[in-house]
Task: structure prediction
Amino acid sequence: MNSERPSLPELALAFLKLGTIAFGGPAAHIAMMEEQFVRRRHWISHQEFLDRLAAANLIPGPSSTELAIYIGFQKRGWRGLVVAGCCFILPAAIILCCLAAVYVRFGSLPSVARVLYAVKPVVIAVVAQALWMLRKSAIRTAWLAMIAIACLLAYFLDVPPLLILLVAGIAALVVPLFRGGSTHSFIAWFATLLPASPTVADQIPFSIARLFLTFLKIGSVLFGSGYVLLVFLRDDFVTNLHWLNEHQLLDAVAVGQVTPGPVFTTATFIGYLVGGIKGAVVATIGIFLPGFFLVAMSGPLLPRIRRSTTASAFLDGVVAGSLALMIGVTWELGKAALVDIPTAIMAIASAVALIRFRINSAWLVLGAAVIGWVMNR
Result:
């Protein structure tokens, strides 16, 4: 266990800073946390980081936010849990609330296309570097490598992330059953797992209570990335409740993608659109509250899990699966980000700056955002 124990103000400042400059979605947030808290500050070890990342991927809610909450809980207990989580969420929530006010007043937002164009290649480099740094800790045996490959294939077959991680954990427990044979049956097992279809809810008139319960439900059951969040938001707010139209939903998701911090703060934007300031606060609390509760319940179990041979093997499988899912997400983001020669050059230059010169990733992302903003003038 790492002996360094930051004070609550140190914890608060670290996560406020991260929440302010963490562009690029969950994969980029995780990469920045690995850089800040494992390699730079040495608050936790690589293995502790991977264990908490695996646990965050196993419970519903925003994985990067829950990872922040886990780190705060480990370093400063219950107070650290609240401080780390709230400080990581707060900057994005405030930014989204302000942008929603502008959107409601003027009906649109300034173009963010050039900002995204410049930031995305840097984000890809940041994530790729983090994955490279984590590979040795996550993939320690040939069997775990085999599990990771199968998980990656399952990801591209659109298998739900939760099922991928659960099967990865089970597979790590049953090495003798597959040792000496091919992975064909194992991969086929993944391929038979079909995504679940969202249920249709009854149409209900707007109320603050319904807004809170809807986001509480999403935060309690949603696994996966911000792209999965889009499916839930469309089903609830456009198809069933009719509180938003398609155009408003896409604008909300776009703003959530281009602003720093958790993508789940898209809920703040939507809450403001349908319920003003009160709606923004209620929506934000509703979608993030389950994550705090689930981390508080599961956090104390992690040391016991690591002491159990069986549970530790299961967690090793989940860690390998988590790394595979991050690789899959990075591949898809890379295809969307590296669209021409300039973006490819930016990604390569960023990777060199990170690996060769060890430049802080936050400055690279902020620099790219400024360049994109200037290009947009």
The radius of gyration is 20 Å.
